[in-house]
Input
Amino acid sequence: MDFNTKFTPHTWPDHPEQATMEGKNKVVGFWIFLACEVVLFASLFATYLALKNKGPAGMEFTTQGLFELPLAFAMTMLLLTSSLTSVYAIYHMRNFNFKGMQTWLAITLALGLGFLALEIYEFNHYVHLGFTFNQSAFATAFYSLVGTHGFHVTLGLVWIGTLMIRNAKRGLNLYNAPKFFVAALYWHFIDVVWVFIFTVVYLMGVIG
Amino acid sequence: MSSYTQKKGFGAAVWDYITTVDHKKLAVMYLLAGTLFFAIAGFEALLMRIQLMKPNNDFVSAGFFNELLTMHGTTMLFLAATPLLFAFMNMLVPLQIGARDVAFPFLNSLGFWLFFLGAVFLHLSFFMGGAPDAGWTSYASLSLYSPGHGIDFYVLGLQISGAGTLISGLNFIVTIITMRAPGMTFMRMPLFTWTALVSSALILFAFPPLTIGLLMMLFDRMFGGNFFDHTMGGNTVIWEHLFWIFGHPEVYILVLPAFGLFSEIIPAFSRKRLFGYSSMVFATILIGFLGFMVWAHHMFTVGLGPTANAIFAVATMAIAVPTGMKVFNWILTIWGGSIKVTTPMLYALGFIPSFVAGGVTGVMQASAPLDYQLHDSYFIVAHFHYVIVGGIVTALFGSAHFYWPIFFNRMLNETLGKITFWVFFIGFHLTFFLQHFLGLMGMPRRVFTYMEGQGWDQFNYISTIGALMMGVGVILMVINCLMSIKGKPAGRDPWGDGRTLEWSIPQPIPFYNFRQTPLVRGLDPWWIEKQEGNKEVTFAEPLGDIHMPNNSAIPFVISLGMFIAAFGALYNPDADKPWSIYVLIIGLAITFGAMIARSVKDDHGFHLHKEEILEIEEHLYGKGGNK
Output
């Protein structure tokens, strides 16, 4: 199928992201890339667990004293909701509703930005308390794990934003449908990683 | 006359190679780059052997010896063996599965340039204040306190080239899953393609821990992080775990494709189908799986406790089972075959006993109590060189002879090839066999010299003679390769014993590989066609337009940006180099700019029309097409 064929909602395929060979490769390849990202985060989680609450003699910072669940809960809600809105965006993409897709992607971006703002606030707060990157092994491991996730969120925002701007005028076709699809996959992945961070870092930090 | 059949000038040819996304050209580039780094690392090994030739030698200084042993190991594994195997994977995998290119030709090119520029970056350390000197394992307790920028070169260079390797691995997996020709089921895939698939899967899961380990080392050395600093609560054993979670699978990443190459050579020259094909596939997957369960056998002496040591000891011994299956399958393939002892076959015959010897000493070390005795001795050096030289290098040399006609449409000289084999093979055993005994006598590895009168002198002397013989062998091999430039075109299936699809393509291979996609009717499709008296493979489609990817300079630009940024990152902690931050920003801007350019500009590829195909084929093979 040609990339530039003009479609109507009737001729638009059920799975536009896999209608071309390139699209199919992209989706398979992206799942495999996510497998590799899982290992990447697993290494960071393992390191964090090994270094949790470890620091120089007499360090006053512990997970119990530092983390506040309300803030982490607000961040979790923002990111979980953004995952839901990206599902809506892909639903509209499959129904050839470009406007609907762009709208929901814009909402996803807004929620993602909100999450990022809270994370920056959180890090800033800790630094002011004296819990800096160099303060202890615990601090280094914490900022590396959560920061790598935050970096992924930032990349996702730039990525989805670029896609929206690039395709604003031309609408959906079989060339860009796989791109939107894998960007949404990536966004879900970031969300899943956050669920683990919320559990392992914050919940187990405060309660466990 | 279409542009495809015109002769190109030198500049245009260079530009063509920089921008190419053709897997065959990238394979040639991997081959050249890998050979370059193989030669450099081999030369480093010779310098070390000359230093160790006699006791109390002062040929090189202690510090330089540390740099040599670090760079020899790092280069051989990351920058020589990996790209050389990638050369074969790039060239053969698409041809063996009947594809016109890999799944992501753009990423293929990106993978090469990241690897190559990362490797160049690492080697520039020799000229910019000293190479890394903490061993290829770069244990944190040693490397954190290494002065100068050597370790920073190691961290950044491996980070960049590792990203390239990861990208290429991902590409091979997708290619093998989605791009197989009609009829090419998984259980009809040539064994080399199978090993390429499993090895790529290992790359996918093994390289991220290395990436994270290197990132932590970077944070600790450059930004004052505390991952490995025990006074700040850090733990240096974390590096060892992450490194070996990567490092042990890395060995299988290299040796599995080598097994695959021999599994192509042995059936071809025994003129029998591979014995126990399904069990070979099963063994490959099992080795890949178990490869991730054994990393702590490198750390028996760390003190993880008897339970951990026992579990990892048993898991390590278990790997001998699938490996043994493979060895028996090769032997049973040869058994009763109509054997032709060509140069590739000679390498295969030399490989089996050498590799088994390396494997047996490996199982010895799996026994944790014995490992306390053998750890960090020359016995270890002898063991892993038997596996790597006896397994991987013989595979690379043998397959270079075997597949040279696929790469360059020329044959290598058989007589010179056999001489090369014997010189190299005898040199190899002379070098490393005696090192087992040196280890048992107590000689530690990584020492720059030793005292006389400990009974080590004579064995070390002989070992050095062997190393020089290996050097002569490599030079003979290179001479053979250079001589082939003047050779006659080899043509299609020049050995006469090709079994798989890559031999069915007329030479020189057109850039679209297959004019019509082949129909695969069983294992060893080309052999089946030849048995039935066919001169062509059966086609799955009529002659029609072919869709091909466009060339692109963006992969090179992305990699160049990373290369520039790495210098900025390297010098950033130095107070007297304030410009470094700008270098870092400019480099990253180039990389991200190129990435955005790639996303914004559509790349649809192009269609090659039927008439153009016929014109190209007439130009390549003369009137009457490829009959």
